Amino acid sequence: MRTMKVRLLFFAVLRDIAGTGARELALADGATARDVWQWMRESYAPLADYAQPPLIAVNEAYAAPETVLRDGDEVAFIPPVAGG
User: Fold this and answer.
1) What is the pLDDT of residues 56-84, one digit of tens each?
2) What is the pTM of this model?
3) Which domains, ranges and CATH numbers included, belong to the chain?
4) HEC readout, the chain
5) 63 - beta bridge partners?
């Protein structure tokens, strides 16, 4: 099986949960942004109950969960922000 690497960026509460602002992740060729979200749910217990991913960006452009990733892509999940 061929693999690729993507760079994950973590913002706001996701950064707190992951304990870092970024990390690399090795995936099988053909993996989607939804597959990365599933990995995050399995890797970080506070995310386990969130079946649907938040807003997704791939290479700084909004993307759908079904977006197929390529080697070297940068993937960010953007959590909702509340403020006053």
Assistant:
1) 999 999 999 999 999 999 999 998 876 65
2) 0.91
3) 3-78 (3.10.20.30)
4) CCEEEEEEEECHHHHHHHCCCEEEEEEECCCEHHHHHHHHHHHCHHHCCCCCCCEEEECCEEECCCCECCCCCEEEEECCCCCC
5) 56
